[in-house]
Write a structure and sequence with these properties.
The protein is built from five helices and no strands. By secondary structure, the chain is mainly alpha-helical. The chain has one domain.
């Protein structure tokens, strides 16, 4: 049995969702926040790395720097997966966890790296988050 459409039927209408200006402004604010967090993370990693080097020497500073570098990469991967959330996927991936585990495994097996400074270096992106929160709370 074949169904034939009526002669006077109208073709289906396609609806195009045009983002409102508030949505565009929100995305611009979000992108500015991501960039600001990335810059703060890099600046904090460099500054803290220099301070650690002056007090504890190159070995501890190297461990901290490697941890900060991996933490910055982790943060960048996190922002990319959050950007894709709802558009390309409905869940957050766990590939970033492997990055942290790899850092800790390398620091544990290496003669040049220390585990605790590498761990603290990895957490440097949290310092940037706290700095942004403190900055926002201090605004009237």
């Amino acid at each position: 049995m074949k169904i034939i459409p009526a002669k006077n039927s109208t073709p289906p209408q396609t609806v195009v969702n045009i983002p409102s200006t508030s949505t565009i402004d929100s995305m611009e604010d979000y992108n500015r926040l991501k960039f600001k967090l990335l810059v703060f993370t890099i600046a904090a990693g460099v500054l803290i790395g220099i301070v650690v080097w002056s007090y504890y020497g190159w070995k501890i500073s190297l461990s901290y720097g490697v941890g900060a570098l991996v933490g910055t990469l982790y943060f960048r991967m996190l922002t990319k997966s959050v950007d894709a959330l709802g558009v390309e996927s409905n869940r957050l991936g766990f590939a970033r966890l492997g990055l942290f585990v790899l850092l800790m495994a390398i620091a544990a097996k290496s003669d040049q790296l220390e585990i605790l400074p590498a761990f603290f270096g990895f957490l440097t992106y949290k310092v940037a988050v706290l700095a942004i929160i403190a900055q926002d709370l201090s605004k009237p």
